[in-house]
Design a protein that fits this description.
CATH topology of the largest domain: Rossmann fold
Shape: flat
Largest sheet: 7 strands, mixed
CATH architecture of the largest domain: 3-Layer(aba) Sandwich
CATH superfamily of the largest domain: Vaccinia Virus protein VP39
Radius of gyration: 23 Å
Distance between the termini: 54 Å
Mean pLDDT: 96
Length: 395
């Protein structure tokens, strides 16, 4: 079926209409003429893939990854990097201005290196090692992942020396000088064939079993150190993470009392601690709070208090002049928005990984707060995902 691609959706898929019904086409760019095959028929839309390109966009490139059409992880790598940045910038602007009914100018996107940026890679195992094929549990055997750090890629080949029948998954994480391997599988697995290639090795069976080194790695960010434990959340792109943290630090300088909601292992709280008077960090995960207190101790920071609590249960009984929120993809819950509006801090710094839930929450805040700026950060090159930092000032 011959169609013209009219535009792109927020996931980077081409949009066309067939009998007035929207059809999303993977690996298609705006203004391309293509032949398509319908892969899914839904009530309100179709999904399709390209069978032949008749007219190709000037912004199309040949993806470097040999697994690109199979994996689906890097879903916009067929765009030039400049076009990826433009797509993400426009995506944020379109969503914000459509749903807020405002003409808000989006700051220029802060960009990253396009490849070898990921400090963590999860590999699936089923008699071979690889990544899941798009929308299936079939495994694509790989020898490297182009968006993962070169050090991680250098280690993949050694994993084949193990008895893969006893393994379900490999998780590799790196810091500056350490690489940690987490093996999800049988605790009695013989790791002798790979022992010398990894600094830290842990097997996760019914619980964690330390086989070599530590059950964490340390990451240095400027003059600070952070403990990254087995299940700790830490941004996967160190380069952009530092730029994002510097931006937050600049915007909360000289704050007297800061609340850091969804603080995780305390990375932002500790990073800004030298330019603010006091910080309270709140996080629901007990292990993350344990790491946060460890990080506070090794960095000799004394003006932070970490609290383990669910944000939906929090009652804010003191005044904060700055509140930082870095929620999961689901965004802020209604109860914490109510508490924030009760306190009315002078400034809110909202870190978001989902522009739709960000926009939803800004609707609840914009009657009391001016949206000073929205800055995108390209935390995940070659994918449609984008991080944003929004600065809101009390009217």
């Amino acid at each position: 079926m011959y169609v013209n691609i009219e535009s792109l959706d927020h996931k980077g898929r081409g949009i066309t209409k067939i009998d007035n019904k929207i059809t999303f086409v993977t690996n298609a760019l705006a203004f391309e003429d293509v032949d398509i095959i319908i892969t899914k028929i839904k009530k309100k839309y179709n999904e399709a893939k390209v069978s032949r390109y008749n007219k190709i966009s000037k912004d199309r490139i040949e993806p470097l990854c040999p697994y690109y059409l199979l994996c689906g992880g890097c879903n916009i790598a067929h765009m030039s990097y400049q076009e990826q940045l433009k797509f993400k910038q426009n995506k944020i602007a379109n969503i914000i201005n459509k749903y807020l009914d405002k003409n808000i100018e989006i700051n220029d996107i802060i960009y990253s290196k396009q490849y070898n940026y990921r400090n963590k890679l999860t590999l699936q195992v089923n008699n071979e090692i690889g990544l899941y094929k798009q929308e299936t549990n079939d495994i694509i055997n790989i020898d490297k992942c182009l968006i993962s750090d070169k050090c991680i890629n250098d280690k993949i080949k050694y994993l084949n020396n193990l008895d893969l029948k006893k393994i379900k998954q490999f998780i590799l994480r790196i810091s500056d000088e350490e690489i940690m391997l987490i093996i999800v599988g049988n605790k009695d697995l013989d790791i002798t064939p790979i022992f010398k290639y990894f600094d830290n090795i842990v097997i996760k069976d019914d619980k964690y079993y330390l086989k070599k080194g530590n059950d964490y790695i340390l990451k240095r960010i400027n003059n600070l150190y952070y403990k990254i434990s087995l299940d700790s959340f830490f941004q996967v792109n160190y380069d952009i993470m530092i730029k994002l943290y510097d931006y937050i630090k600049k915007n909360c300088q000289n704050s007297l009392n800061v609340l850091d909601l969804y603080c995780g292992t305390g990375s932002i709280s500790i990073y800004i601690s030298d330019v603010v008077k006091k910080v309270n960090g709140i996080e629901i995960n007990e292990n993350a709070i344990e790491d946060a207190n460890y990080n506070k101790k090794i960095n000799k920071v004394e003006n932070i208090n970490f609290i383990c609590s669910d944000t939906k249960d929090i009652k804010l009984n003191e005044y904060y002049d700055t509140i930082i929120v870095d929620p999961p993809r689901s965004g802020l819950n209604k109860s914490i928005i109510k508490e924030i509006l009760k306190v009315k801090p002078q400034k809110i710094i909202y870190v978001s990984c989902d522009p739709m839930t960000l926009t939803r929450d800004l609707k609840d805040l914009k009657n009391v707060y001016d949206i000073d700026s929205i800055t995108p950060f390209d935390m995940f090159p070659n994918t449609y995902h984008v991080e944003c930092v929004t600065i809101l000032n009390l009217e």
